[in-house]
Amino acid sequence: MEERPLTGIGPPGRIAAPGEGIGHDELALAARNHGLPLEAMRYEVTPAGLHYVLVHYDIPETAPDPDTWRLTLRGRLGTPLELGLRDLRALPSVTHRVTMECAGNGRARLSPRPVSQPWLVEAVGTAEWTGVPLRAVLAEAGVAPDAVEAVFTGADHGVERGVEQDYRRSLPLPVGEDVLLAHTMNGGPLPPQHGHPLRLVVPGWYGMAHVKWLRDIELVDTAFGGYQQATAYRYKQSAEEPGEPVTRIAPRALLIPPGFPDFMSRTRVVRPGPVRLAGRAWSGYGPVVRVELSTDGGNGWADAEVLPQGGHPYAWQGWHADWTALPGSHTLLVRATDASGRTQPLEQPWNRGGFGNNQVQAVSVVCR
Amino acid sequence: MEERPLTGIGPPGRIAAPGEGIGHDELALAARNHGLPLEAMRYEVTPAGLHYVLVHYDIPETAPDPDTWRLTLRGRLGTPLELGLRDLRALPSVTHRVTMECAGNGRARLSPRPVSQPWLVEAVGTAEWTGVPLRAVLAEAGVAPDAVEAVFTGADHGVERGVEQDYRRSLPLPVGEDVLLAHTMNGGPLPPQHGHPLRLVVPGWYGMAHVKWLRDIELVDTAFGGYQQATAYRYKQSAEEPGEPVTRIAPRALLIPPGFPDFMSRTRVVRPGPVRLAGRAWSGYGPVVRVELSTDGGNGWADAEVLPQGGHPYAWQGWHADWTALPGSHTLLVRATDASGRTQPLEQPWNRGGFGNNQVQAVSVVCR
Question: What are the residues facing A201 on neighbouring strands?
């Protein structure tokens, strides 16, 4: 179905008042969706169930029957196509290890806070996605000369800021050669919450581009103006301005919190002496070339050792540094810089949707 | 290690002030841990990654090497034992389908709100657990006549309300014949967040009893007085009183929210006409014998059809009812009653830890 107004159902977009705590609406999203527990960065490939998940509406009931499920390709194509799961699995496939991050990661730390899914810092994960390069499928169908974008429609359906819609996003043509129609995650079928049976994977881009429960691709001759493209997922300062589109992932480094935690505050406790600090770093703009660590709250910085990409250009890179913990309270900060020169801010610039945040992470550690 | 004081690290237990929103500390727990998206109740057995998870400290790095990992059994036993994973897998095993719920489910709806993991209603899941009956292993080792409890220690380590500890709980002897040392979840190895490689499963009890990352069992001749047994997980009105232990799961029915949602409010939208309402119901005190549904906010109630347990005495039961939606706003309520006569309150009685809540669920639906 096309998008259509359905007003008066949910609240309009809003910014929290100064000092306003997280509300039940934000909490309901936080309880449904989930981040990566940061200690799980110890795994190069995130095990099932630990990778972050953001579902806008409901996880749809997707037909598990490979005989009836179809992906449709239509619009400005030489030959419209219908592909079943067996068709897709029979096509030559590739596997990419991809670090995916939600565009709203860090939103709940903004001041004032845009009211939406309230991520702190953990909306990330890395998986091995296997599927068919979209380019190959489009070449088979024949792209019309006047086609400018591909519009991807998922099976998830809901209302958002007064617009009833199937989740839908577009990419400009030609799509990157790394864009996949992924039918396999970490060697198995996609779990329901990750888009079973098929999702788009757009390496290097924030999560909103990786359309889950993909059921239709339409090639169009004008820029797609749907809700998720033209209204949401834009960098803006006010609701009225058109803003700039959210696309690739800004660089970020995260630390595996050392020692052990306090249950409620998540403050870390370490013993005096040598501590190996390690974590992951990534960017959608190229390899991470530098990770800096501060163990004194940002006064001094020292380079950590960054591991090479090792044949996985779309995945996070490991990094580590050695620290000698002395008794007292410490704030550890980490900062990544990528090959394009992009780095992480100490103070987060604000935008109304709360997108693209990559302020340096701060981890409180008490050494006893 | 034994429990020991480690004061001044985290905050003391506290109750939120009237009107106080969810804080960053509670949000950090909500972002790490996660509930069952309610539409996933459509699956009789919850797929991996959708089952609720609560981890007190960090997911520990448990040795995947079956040659080195050991479960130790010691204390008031005829023969102390060390069992490897191969030993456990070679013993006769059974499979139980078990509905598990967090003892703190519903805490965030309490007023005033105990500050801890802020669940709304979704901390539940059902899995097929395969493992060795604990009774058989204890019989092999020989239980001393003076043994009164078994103390179970997990590999997860942290600080909680000033007490440094490995997560540790006990059960009175003799343990139920249904208590398992589970090495398999839904037919595969346990995921890291569910206790890999071994967890205790205590059908019918709230989640705190199902010790994850189980590494040690000690039979003792006096009641265990550890933090998670004697301080936390007690029904109390004040911090000072000893309270009553949290044990079995109170009855609850949940509705799979009908129609489709608004992203932010989770309000449901349905079309006018017949709507099939369905969900799950469970109790740790016996089968659910009745599910009642109100479609007018609690004025009128009608019985739903409850499916029998079907050979799975520890798992939730399906239920369904037909409703004709008329244009307007509706509040749907569901209430379960079990064979022991226990049912769900309309107003939630309060306790300081926020445990054992089972107030009837209310789902807001707009029919357009």
Answer: A180
What is the total count of domains within chain B? 2
Do B238 and B304 lie in a common domain?
no
Tokens of A11: 């609240």
Domain stop point among B195, B215, B245 = B245
Are B143 and B273 contained in the same domain? no
Q: List, as one string, the DSSP characters of A295-327.
A: SSTTS--EEPEEPP-TT-TTS-EEEEEEEEE-S
Quote the longest CA-to-CA distance of chain A.
70
Say whether both B222 and B285 belong to one domain. Answer: no
Q: State whether residue B213 sits within 8 Å of chain A by CB.
A: no
> Residue A227 CB: number of other CB atoms within 10 A?
18
Which of chain B's residues have a Cβ under 8 Å away from the Cβ of A259? none
**B287, B222: one domain:** no
- Find the CATH number of the domain harbouring B186: 3.90.420.10
Q: Are residues A145 and A103 in the same domain?
A: yes
Say whether residue A225 is in contact with chain B using an 8 A CB cutoff.
no
Cβ within 8 Å of residue A145, ≥6 positions away: none
Positive or negative: CA dihedral B325, A13, B256, B295:
negative
List, run by run, the mean pLDDT of 10-residue segments along chain A (368 residues).
Answer: 86 91 95 97 95 97 81 97 95 98 98 97 98 97 98 97 97 97 97 97 98 98 97 96 97 98 97 98 98 96 97 98 98 98 97 98 96
Whether the CB of B6 is below 8 Å from some CB of chain A: the reply is: yes
Identify the pLDDT of residue A145: 97
Between B6, B49, B260, which is nearest A157 by CB?
B260
Q: Is residue B269 classed exposed, middle or buried when 0-12, 13-18 and 19+ CB atoms within 10 A define those classes?
A: buried
Which residues have C-beta within 8 Å of that of residue B338, sequence separation ≥ 6? B251, B283, B285, B286, B287, B288, B289
CB A198 within 8 A of CB A88: yes
Q: Are A258 and A270 in contact (CB under 8 A)?
A: yes
Task: State which of A245, A263, A278 marks the end of a domain.
Answer: A245
Do β-strands A288-294 and A302-303 pair in parallel, antiparallel, or remain unpaired? antiparallel
In DSSP notation, A278-289 reads EEEEE-TTS-EE
**CB pair distance less than 8 Å for B118 and A35:** no
CATH number at residue A271: 2.60.40.650
Domain, as residue range, for B312: 252-367
Radius of gyration of chain A (CA): 21
Q: Is B56 left (phi over 0), alpha (psi -120 to 50) or beta?
A: alpha
DSSP B330-353: EEEEEEEEETTS-B--SSPPP-TT
Q: Which residues of A292-305 are buried (b: 16+ CB within 10 A; e: fewer)?
A: bbbbeeeeeeeebe
Partner residues linked to B333 by β-bridges:
B294, B362
Nearest CA in chain B to A49: B49
ipTM attached to this prediction? 0.95
Residues A183 and A293 in one domain: no
Show the low-confidence residues of chain B (pLDDT under 70): 1, 63-64
Count the Cβ atoms, other than its own, within 10 Å of residue A95. 14
- A267: contact with B, CB 8 A cutoff: yes
Cα distance between residue B112 and residue B110, in whole Å: 6
Does B188 share its domain with B109?
A: yes
Same domain, B262 and B162: no
Which member of B33, B47, B120 has the closest CB to residue A27? B120
Q: Which residues in A lie closer than 8 A to residue B158 (C-beta atoms)?
A: 260-263
